[in-house]
Amino acid sequence: MAAVTSPETTPQPRVYFQTPPGTEEEVPQKQGRVTVKYDRKELRRRLNLEEWIVSQLMNLYDCEEDEVPELEIDVDELLDLPSDVERAIRVKMLLVDCYKPNDDFVAALLEKVRGMQKLSTPQKKGDLTP
């Protein structure tokens, strides 16, 4: 039978996460603050668009969310294209495996994308690429 040892009988190394007494006033308490580069309204529009895309793809492919084919409809990529015709062609290329009519989806997607801002990734120091 194994012997049970208690912390009082067996010295073991310990880790303390408490501030030592008497130093609480010396350590400034920082409040959490998140710096957001993007406009919250634009981020909300993106999230709503992504949710809408998923629901539409579920209808187009007659499946549940986890069964939707891996399609990456990149809004920033669509915004980089010079015309709606080229955007439509790009989206239709992504939907090549969809056998249901998808013209209404493509038209609605392009309408929702129109007027959106491109979200660029924050640059690292020393990185000169946009």
TrEMBL record:
Entry's Gene Ontology molecular function annotations: protein serine/threonine phosphatase inhibitor activity
Region (Disordered): 1-30
Amino acid composition bias (Polar residues), ranges on this chain: 1-12
One BP term from GO: innate immune response
Cellular component, GO, one term: cytoplasm
Record key words, sorted: Acetylation, Phosphoprotein, Protein phosphatase inhibitor
Xref: InterPro entries: CPI-17, CPI-17_sf
Matching Gene3D superfamilies: CPI-17
Record family assignment: Belongs to the PP1 inhibitor family.
The name this protein goes by in its record: protein phosphatase 1, regulatory (inhibitor) subunit 14Ba
Protein species of origin: Danio rerio
